[in-house]
Design brief:
With 376 residues, the chain is α/β, with parallel strands linked by helices. Helix content is 41%, strand content 16%. It has a seven-stranded parallel beta sheet, with helices on both faces. A six-stranded parallel beta sheet has the order 10-9-8-11-12-13, sandwiched between helices. Helix 2 packs across helix 3 and helix 3 crosses helix 4. The radius of gyration is 21 Å and the shape is globular.
Length: 376
């Protein structure tokens, strides 16, 4: 079978979307007996996601030593070696500089958004365009991301392959009462859940404002659980105080991989109102958390922003609302509080769709086809 080098500085123990995608893909390819070799930054005993048990070359964390070690690693590879870089820079750039001709680059959203006029030197703008054009294939996680890539580099050879999810992992039965007890959540409320890094563009403030708009009798039936860490936490907590929502919100912080399926299972609606922020270059290129929630049978509510419309099919597991539309979000929260049954039905439909369309086996087949790698 073919030898594939996966270059990913964002890799377990990191717990972001790129890391999760790279990890799951490496596992799928290795299970098919591909000769998969990973290059990533040294884990240094850090807590987080567990690295797959495949050959992994670790490079130092300091930028200069990291890139020099990566360059040397790639220099020793055959020129036509099959290289998969999870982002265009520095991984794909270093592969290109060593003369590799068979490079597949993944594009996720934020990293291919336009720079502001002073956001990057002209050299970096031109380099990005050159690397994307030189790649054998640029694998985009959504139609939105593909559009960004083609606007930057019209000569790029793009393909859209939507991410996948391990539906089996999120299918186990969980006792809501015991999960709520472990996480400190009320067991007698309908749980509205967000799972993401706490950045301003993720739109947690939209959900808080929508909750505040509800009649008190409806709000009393709901509880907002926020899982994740980030620099926007204090501002969100201050907003909750200002809106008199302190008793309606739980800040869960980092939720472990073992606990995450149970958290999804005990919730009643997943909400993430990410906005497209061109100034801060923040966007949801796809939103793998929407797949995780739907795989758990949890209905989802997202915004028509970035690549989220590729992660949610309205009427088949969830709904889309305009960016920053407080009234639309509040209306869904009110409907959930008044009659949760239609939301449970949508959750079941979402799980059916995800199981049918978003397996890692299907993702790997599409990726290998794009990379022109023979497979069975």
């Amino acid at each position: 079978m073919s030898r594939i080098a996966v270059l990913s500085y964002d890799y377990p123990p990191n717990d972001g979307g790129i890391s999760r995608l790279a990890s799951a893909l490496v596992v799928e390819l290795s299970q098919r007996n591909f000769d998969v070799n990973v290059l990533s930054i040294a884990a240094d005993g850090r807590a987080g996601l567990v690295r797959p048990d495949v050959p992994t070359r670790e490079v130092p964390r300091s930028r200069l030593r990291r890139d020099l070690a990566t360059f040397q690693y790639l220099w020793d590879y055959p020129k036509d070696a099959c290289i998969l870089a999870t982002v265009w820079n520095p991984e794909a750039t270093l592969a290109w500089l060593t003369g590799k001709t068979n490079i597949t680059v993944m594009a996720h959203g934020n990293e291919v958004m336009p720079y502001s006029r002073r956001g990057a030197p002209m050299f970096k703008r031109r380099l990005r365009r050159r690397i994307l054009a030189a790649a054998q294939t640029v694998v985009c996680n959504s139609r939105y991301t593909e559009q960004l890539v083609l606007e930057l580099s019209p000569d790029a050879n793009t393909v859209v392959i939507r991410p996948a999810v391990d539906a089996v992992r999120f299918s186990a039965d969980h006792d809501k009462i015991s999960v709520c007890r472990r996480l400190g959540l009320p067991k007698d409320k309908l749980i509205v859940l967000s799972v993401s890094r706490l950045d301003a563009y993720k739109g947690h403030d939209t959900v808080l404002h929508a909750l505040a708009k509800l009649d008190s009798s409806l709000r009393a039936k709901l509880h907002y659980a926020v899982a994740g860490q980030g620099g926007h936490l204090q501002e969100l907590q201050n907003l909750a105080v200002e809106l008199q929502l302190v008793d309606c919100v739980s800040w869960l912080g980092f939720v472990s991989e073992d606990e995450l399926p149970g958290l999804y299972a005990c919730a009643d609606l997943f909400v993430l109102c990410t906005r497209e922020d061109s100034v801060a270059r923040g966007v949801e290129g796809f939103g793998m958390v929407f797949l995780e929630a739907q795989a758990s049978g949890l209905p989802v509510l997202g915004t028509r922003a970035g690549g989220i419309p590729d992660a949610i099919v309205e009427g088949q597991g969830g709904w889309l609302v305009p960016q920053d539309d407080l009234d639309a979000v509040a209306e869904h929260l009110a409907q959930l509080a008044q009659n949760p049954e239609p939301y449970r039905q949508q959750g079941a439909l979402g799980r059916e769709r995800v199981c049918r369309e978003a397996s890692w086996a299907r993702y790997a087949d599409q990726l290998l086809d794009a990379m022109k790698v023979e497979h069975v």
